[in-house]
Specification:
30% strand
Length: 126
C-alpha cells in the first residue's frame, strides 16, 4: 500500500515537472552576446545602442561594466543580453550583474512572448 502511494506520488511529481518545463518557455538554447543594460541597448539615451555616449561623459566610469551597472542602479534599467541587433531580458539579474560588460555564453530557455531568457547558466567568453 505504501509502495503504491510512493509510486503515485513520484509519477505525479514527474508529470508536474514536465508541465513546468513546457510552461517555462521551451527548449534550452545557447545565446552569445554581451551583458549590457536596457537603457543603452534600447536607445533610451544612446544613439548607437552601446555605452559609447555615456562613457564620453566620464562621470559614470570608464568601462562598459561601469556604464551598465550605473544605468541599472541609477537610471531604471535592467541587465539584458545584447546579441547583435537583438536584446533579450534576463530572469537572473544577480548573475547578469556579475557579468556586466562581458561577452558571455548563456544557456537558457527563451519565452518568445516576453522576450525573456530563463537563465540556466552563464559564463564569460574569453
Amino acid at each position: 500500500m505504501k509502495a503504491n502511494r510512493s509510486r503515485a506520488a513520484t509519477i505525479a511529481l514527474v508529470i508536474a515537472a514536465a508541465f513546468g518545463c513546457m510552461a517555462g518557455g521551451g527548449t534550452e538554447q545557447v545565446f552569445k552576446g554581451e551583458i549590457g543594460d536596457s537603457q543603452c541597448a534600447l536607445n533610451v539615451h544612446s544613439l548607437s545602442r552601446s555605452h559609447e555616449e555615456m562613457l564620453k561623459k566620464k562621470s559614470i566610469g570608464t568601462t562598459a561594466a561601469d556604464c551598465a551597472r550605473y544605468c541599472v542602479k541609477n537610471l531604471g534599467g535592467v541587465f539584458v543580453l545584447q546579441v547583435k541587433d537583438k536584446v533579450y531580458k534576463l530572469d537572473n539579474q544577480d548573475l547578469a550583474e556579475k557579468h556586466a560588460g562581458e561577452k558571455v555564453k548563456v544557456i537558457g530557455a527563451l519565452d518568445p512572448q516576453t522576450n525573456t531568457i530563463a537563465v540556466h547558466s552563464m559564463e564569460q567568453i574569453k
